[in-house]
Specification:
The protein is 45% helix and 7% strand. Strands 1-2 form a two-stranded antiparallel ribbon. The termini are far apart. By secondary structure, the chain is mainly alpha-helical. The protein is extended, with a radius of gyration of 22 Å. A hairpin with a 2-residue loop joins strand 1 and strand 2 (48-51). The longest helix has 31 residues, at 2-32. It is built from six helices and four strands. Helix 4 (138-145) crosses helix 5 (149-159). The protein folds into two domains: 1-35; 40-189, no CATH class. This is Potassium-transporting ATPase KdpC subunit.
Length: 195
Protein backbone atom coordinates (compact mmCIF):
# COMPACT_ATOMS: atom_id res chain seq x y z
CA UNK A 1 0.00 0.00 0.00
CA UNK A 2 2.86 2.37 0.81
CA UNK A 3 4.25 1.91 -2.71
CA UNK A 4 0.82 2.74 -4.23
CA UNK A 5 0.64 6.00 -2.29
CA UNK A 6 4.16 6.93 -3.39
CA UNK A 7 3.28 6.24 -7.03
CA UNK A 8 0.05 8.27 -6.72
CA UNK A 9 1.92 11.23 -5.22
CA UNK A 10 4.58 11.12 -7.96
CA UNK A 11 1.93 10.90 -10.68
CA UNK A 12 0.04 13.83 -9.12
CA UNK A 13 3.20 15.96 -9.05
CA UNK A 14 4.03 15.06 -12.66
CA UNK A 15 0.45 15.84 -13.82
CA UNK A 16 0.46 19.10 -11.89
CA UNK A 17 3.71 20.15 -13.58
CA UNK A 18 2.63 19.03 -17.08
CA UNK A 19 -0.91 20.46 -17.04
CA UNK A 20 -0.47 23.51 -14.81
CA UNK A 21 3.01 24.67 -15.84
CA UNK A 22 4.37 23.04 -18.99
CA UNK A 23 1.20 22.99 -21.15
CA UNK A 24 0.19 26.64 -20.41
CA UNK A 25 3.78 27.74 -21.07
CA UNK A 26 3.83 25.95 -24.47
CA UNK A 27 0.50 27.53 -25.47
CA UNK A 28 1.69 30.97 -24.31
CA UNK A 29 4.96 30.55 -26.25
CA UNK A 30 3.09 29.55 -29.42
CA UNK A 31 0.81 32.56 -29.04
CA UNK A 32 3.85 34.85 -28.88
CA UNK A 33 4.82 33.76 -32.39
CA UNK A 34 1.60 35.28 -33.77
CA UNK A 35 1.32 38.90 -34.87
CA UNK A 36 -1.20 39.68 -32.14
CA UNK A 37 0.94 38.03 -29.43
CA UNK A 38 -2.08 35.95 -28.39
CA UNK A 39 -4.26 38.95 -27.67
CA UNK A 40 -6.76 38.28 -30.44
CA UNK A 41 -7.05 39.83 -33.88
CA UNK A 42 -8.19 43.44 -33.80
CA UNK A 43 -9.24 45.46 -36.81
CA UNK A 44 -9.79 49.19 -36.91
CA UNK A 45 -12.21 50.84 -39.31
CA UNK A 46 -13.21 54.50 -39.28
CA UNK A 47 -11.72 55.02 -35.84
CA UNK A 48 -13.54 52.06 -34.27
CA UNK A 49 -11.83 48.89 -33.06
CA UNK A 50 -13.38 45.44 -33.40
CA UNK A 51 -12.36 41.99 -32.21
CA UNK A 52 -12.36 39.93 -35.38
CA UNK A 53 -12.93 36.49 -33.85
CA UNK A 54 -15.67 37.42 -31.37
CA UNK A 55 -19.34 37.75 -32.22
CA UNK A 56 -20.95 41.10 -31.56
CA UNK A 57 -24.28 42.85 -31.70
CA UNK A 58 -24.93 45.28 -34.53
CA UNK A 59 -27.16 48.27 -33.90
CA UNK A 60 -29.83 48.86 -36.49
CA UNK A 61 -31.80 46.77 -38.95
CA UNK A 62 -29.63 48.03 -41.83
CA UNK A 63 -26.93 45.59 -40.63
CA UNK A 64 -26.85 41.82 -40.90
CA UNK A 65 -27.55 40.40 -37.47
CA UNK A 66 -25.32 37.91 -35.66
CA UNK A 67 -26.38 34.79 -33.83
CA UNK A 68 -28.08 35.55 -30.52
CA UNK A 69 -25.76 35.40 -27.53
CA UNK A 70 -26.65 33.88 -24.16
CA UNK A 71 -23.91 36.06 -22.59
CA UNK A 72 -24.71 39.32 -24.42
CA UNK A 73 -21.47 38.98 -26.46
CA UNK A 74 -19.31 39.24 -23.31
CA UNK A 75 -16.01 37.51 -24.08
CA UNK A 76 -15.12 37.51 -20.39
CA UNK A 77 -18.01 35.20 -19.59
CA UNK A 78 -18.56 33.07 -22.66
CA UNK A 79 -21.00 30.19 -22.48
CA UNK A 80 -24.33 28.87 -23.61
CA UNK A 81 -27.66 29.11 -21.85
CA UNK A 82 -27.49 25.42 -20.86
CA UNK A 83 -31.22 25.17 -21.54
CA UNK A 84 -32.39 22.19 -23.53
CA UNK A 85 -35.17 21.90 -26.12
CA UNK A 86 -37.59 20.70 -23.47
CA UNK A 87 -37.21 23.86 -21.36
CA UNK A 88 -40.40 25.96 -21.68
CA UNK A 89 -38.66 29.27 -21.00
CA UNK A 90 -36.09 28.52 -23.69
CA UNK A 91 -38.78 27.56 -26.21
CA UNK A 92 -40.63 30.81 -25.45
CA UNK A 93 -37.41 32.78 -25.95
CA UNK A 94 -36.76 31.11 -29.33
CA UNK A 95 -40.40 31.67 -30.39
CA UNK A 96 -40.07 35.38 -29.48
CA UNK A 97 -36.86 35.61 -31.54
CA UNK A 98 -38.63 34.02 -34.52
CA UNK A 99 -41.57 36.45 -34.23
CA UNK A 100 -39.20 39.45 -34.00
CA UNK A 101 -37.23 38.23 -37.01
CA UNK A 102 -40.40 37.77 -39.08
CA UNK A 103 -41.61 41.29 -38.20
CA UNK A 104 -38.33 42.78 -39.41
CA UNK A 105 -38.14 40.51 -42.47
CA UNK A 106 -41.69 40.34 -43.85
CA UNK A 107 -40.63 38.61 -47.08
CA UNK A 108 -39.41 35.54 -45.15
CA UNK A 109 -41.70 32.63 -44.26
CA UNK A 110 -41.50 31.04 -40.79
CA UNK A 111 -40.12 27.79 -42.27
CA UNK A 112 -37.28 29.75 -43.93
CA UNK A 113 -35.85 31.16 -40.67
CA UNK A 114 -32.45 29.49 -40.14
CA UNK A 115 -31.93 27.99 -36.71
CA UNK A 116 -28.68 29.92 -36.16
CA UNK A 117 -30.56 33.25 -36.21
CA UNK A 118 -32.80 32.27 -33.29
CA UNK A 119 -30.54 30.07 -31.12
CA UNK A 120 -27.27 30.98 -29.44
CA UNK A 121 -24.04 29.10 -30.07
CA UNK A 122 -22.34 27.11 -27.32
CA UNK A 123 -19.89 29.92 -26.58
CA UNK A 124 -22.32 32.77 -27.17
CA UNK A 125 -19.54 34.47 -29.17
CA UNK A 126 -19.69 32.85 -32.60
CA UNK A 127 -18.74 35.52 -35.20
CA UNK A 128 -20.23 33.48 -38.06
CA UNK A 129 -23.69 32.74 -39.40
CA UNK A 130 -24.74 30.28 -42.07
CA UNK A 131 -24.88 31.42 -45.68
CA UNK A 132 -28.66 30.90 -45.60
CA UNK A 133 -28.90 33.17 -42.53
CA UNK A 134 -27.27 35.94 -44.55
CA UNK A 135 -29.43 35.47 -47.65
CA UNK A 136 -32.70 35.63 -45.68
CA UNK A 137 -31.66 39.04 -44.32
CA UNK A 138 -30.62 40.42 -47.72
CA UNK A 139 -33.99 41.94 -48.71
CA UNK A 140 -34.29 43.92 -45.46
CA UNK A 141 -30.71 45.18 -45.58
CA UNK A 142 -30.96 46.11 -49.27
CA UNK A 143 -34.18 48.08 -48.76
CA UNK A 144 -32.89 50.01 -45.73
CA UNK A 145 -29.63 50.88 -47.48
CA UNK A 146 -31.07 51.82 -50.85
CA UNK A 147 -29.33 48.91 -52.58
CA UNK A 148 -30.70 46.17 -54.80
CA UNK A 149 -31.07 42.62 -53.49
CA UNK A 150 -28.70 41.29 -56.21
CA UNK A 151 -26.02 43.79 -55.06
CA UNK A 152 -26.32 42.55 -51.50
CA UNK A 153 -26.44 38.91 -52.57
CA UNK A 154 -23.27 39.40 -54.63
CA UNK A 155 -21.54 40.85 -51.58
CA UNK A 156 -22.62 37.83 -49.51
CA UNK A 157 -21.19 35.52 -52.18
CA UNK A 158 -17.87 37.44 -52.08
CA UNK A 159 -17.61 37.30 -48.28
CA UNK A 160 -18.57 33.62 -48.01
CA UNK A 161 -15.89 31.55 -46.27
CA UNK A 162 -15.31 28.06 -47.60
CA UNK A 163 -15.29 24.93 -45.45
CA UNK A 164 -11.97 24.15 -43.75
CA UNK A 165 -9.70 22.67 -46.45
CA UNK A 166 -12.84 22.34 -48.55
CA UNK A 167 -13.88 19.34 -46.46
CA UNK A 168 -14.80 20.12 -42.88
CA UNK A 169 -17.87 22.08 -41.85
CA UNK A 170 -20.25 24.22 -43.86
CA UNK A 171 -19.58 27.46 -45.71
CA UNK A 172 -20.11 30.42 -43.39
CA UNK A 173 -20.40 34.19 -43.34
CA UNK A 174 -18.28 36.31 -40.99
CA UNK A 175 -20.86 38.89 -39.90
CA UNK A 176 -18.43 41.68 -38.96
CA UNK A 177 -16.60 41.30 -42.26
CA UNK A 178 -19.90 41.38 -44.17
CA UNK A 179 -21.19 44.47 -42.34
CA UNK A 180 -17.93 46.37 -42.82
CA UNK A 181 -17.95 45.47 -46.53
CA UNK A 182 -21.56 46.65 -46.69
CA UNK A 183 -20.64 50.03 -45.17
CA UNK A 184 -17.76 50.28 -47.64
CA UNK A 185 -20.09 49.49 -50.55
CA UNK A 186 -22.52 52.18 -49.38
CA UNK A 187 -19.70 54.71 -49.12
CA UNK A 188 -18.45 53.95 -52.64
CA UNK A 189 -21.93 54.04 -54.18
CA UNK A 190 -22.94 57.10 -52.19
CA UNK A 191 -25.92 55.25 -50.72
CA UNK A 192 -27.36 55.62 -47.25
CA UNK A 193 -26.48 53.51 -44.23
CA UNK A 194 -30.04 53.01 -43.18
CA UNK A 195 -29.85 55.68 -40.49
Amino acid sequence: MKSNITIAIRLSIICLFVFAVLYPFIIWALAQTQASKGKGKMIEVAGKSYYYHIGQAFEGDHYFQSRPSAVDYNAGGSGGSNKGPSNEAYLDEVAARIDTFLQKNPTVQRAQVPVDLVTASGSGLDPHISVQAAYVQAARVAELRGLSVPQVNNLIAEIKEKALWGLFGPETIHVLKLNLALDDMNNKLGGNHGN
